[in-house]
């Protein structure tokens, strides 16, 4: 099973939609709430190449983008194979 990370905030409709899509695939994303843990926002910007909106989603460390990109990836059939990839051993 892949490791799915999601930078989010507590009130965020796009985060909720991303969460629902991932859960529909049986995946529970590891959430980092950047409005609670504000020090993590800099890390999100660094990892996402400067993207400021939430969510920012990573699958096995690969930056996917926000909800729109996640949904587009699913619609072209690319999400399921990524989610099926095992997370790298740490
Ligand atoms: N196209 C983006 C839209 C994300 C978005 O607008 N998120 C809102 C929160 S739900 C946000 O970050 N707003 C703050 C901002 O635009 O700076 C996606 O699909 O993720």
Tell me what you see in this structure.
Strands 2-1-3-4 form a four-stranded mixed sheet, with helices on both faces. The chain starts with a strand and ends in a 6-residue tail after the last helix. By secondary structure, it is of the alpha+beta class. The radius of gyration is 12 Å and the shape is globular. The longest helix is centred in the first third of the chain and has 12 residues, at 13-24. Strand 1, helix 1 and strand 2 form a beta-alpha-beta unit. The model has no long low-confidence stretch (mean pLDDT 96). Helix 1 runs parallel beside helix 3. The chain has helices at 13-24, 40-47, 67-75, 79-84; strands at residues 4-8, 30-33, 56-59, 62-65. Bound molecules: glutathione (GSH). The site of glutathione has 11 residues, from helix 1 and helix 3. It comes from Thiohalorhabdus denitrificans. This is Glutaredoxin.
Layout of strands and helices, then pairs:
Blueprint: E1 4-8, H1 13-24, E2 30-33, H2 40-47, E3 56-59, E4 62-65, H3 67-75, H4 79-84
Parallel strand pairs: 1-2
Antiparallel strand pairs: 1-3, 3-4
Helix pairs in contact: 1-3
The structure holds glutathione.
Domain Glutaredoxin: 4-64
Family: Belongs to the glutaredoxin family.
Protein name: Glutaredoxin
